[in-house]
Write a structure and sequence with these properties.
Elements: H1 17-25, H2 29-42, H3 44-57, H4 84-109, H5 112-122
Helix pairs in contact: 1-2, 2-3
InterPro entries: Phageshock_PspC, Phageshock_PspC_N, PspC
Protein name: Envelope stress response membrane protein PspC
Membrane topology: Single-pass membrane protein
């Protein structure tokens, strides 16, 4: 769940209001869009008015500073996040990267040059 409410025009269909709300509440975008579509059917004027107000008042995502959070795994179909298979793939890729880093560190620490530098520092 995002800390700030915003709109994300780069991922949105019209102005990015639904995308920003979905990020804020931690649900998939289609859930918010379904609510907006239902609102358009039963309360057209109110829904359009609220959408336009949100469009005007919510800041764009690119205007906000901050890094993209790590993806979370879905527990239900309507939640935002990655599927368990995608999460496993991402974890495997990250572990492979970390394994290479550990191998490089081990090579450095067990080298003769490292031991000589350590011994010279100890003098």
């Amino acid at each position: 769940m995002s800390q700030r409410m915003y709109r994300d025009p780069s991922r949105g269909a019209l102005a990015g209001v639904c995308t920003g709300l979905a990020d804020y509440f931690g649900v998939e975008v289609w859930v918010i869009r379904l609510g907006v579509a239902t609102g358009l059917i039963f309360a057209t004027l109110l829904t359009v008015l609220l959408y336009l107000i949100a469009w005007g008042m919510l800041p764009k995502r690119d205007e906000l500073a901050g890094a993209e959070p790590l993806p979370t795994m879905k527990q239900h179909g309507w939640q935002k996040g990655v599927s368990p298979a995608q999460a496993l793939t991402l974890a495997s890729e990250r572990l492979a990267e970390l394994e290479l880093r550990v191998q490089r560190i081990e090579r450095c620490v067990t080298s003769k040059a490292y031991r000589i530098r350590r011994d010279l520092k100890g003098l």
